[in-house]
Amino acid sequence: MKTPGPWADLAEALAIGRLTALTRAASRLLDGEVRLTVLSGGTRFQDALLTRSGQLVAYDTQRQEVAEALGAAGAVTFRDFASVRAERDGDRTGGRETYRRKPAETRDGEIQARLHTVAFNVDWENVLALAAAGAAPHGVTLPAPLADWLADAPAERGPLLVRAAAACLVDPGVQPLWAEQFATVEDGEELLEEGIAFFAHVSWEATRRYVAIQKPARRRRQPARRQGRRVRHRPDPPPARSG
Fold first, then answer.
1. How much is the pTM?
2. Half-sphere exposure of 29 (CA within 13 A, CB side)
3. Would the pLDDT of 82 be above 50?
């Protein structure tokens, strides 16, 4: 069962329960305490998904509470990926700068393969709030007619737009159904079209950043050595003797 909003759902509880069972089984096999640390990727992909920091902390706190409720207190621990990396490397600039160093190396096929998954993980409430404040999330500007429509009733229209645009982005076949809900809105069809286009553009840029962050940095390749048999320089043969 999926919970409304960006909170842990039944799938999370089942996954944490599986981890709890694994740690208990390993403890019995090894005749000793086994602990498992789960690195949360929230801050690692925060720049791509535009997630608010407070929600990341709240989400990991909730998952930790689920683990403790299942009897895994101290055995399964959730830690932030960036914090662990900072302890190891001294900073988190590597993860933050990856997509800026290598945008050209992210291929369209890689983006398309993850587009729908990333679209459902973007913090759209934050995206719309940033756009309403005049920002351009991932360089994408919210069309003025759509911004004006949202400004009249943001608490009501924002969630409606998120549901409609995200659903149509993932499954274009449902757009006529959502168009019926926008039929009573002045210029509703155009607003829906602009909303889908805005979400698609932001999702594409978010996925591009997500893929670039996820990909390991490539080392600079050394020039390859020429293969083949090595030919030694030989002096010219001496002139033939006459007579």
1. 0.75
2. 7
3. yes
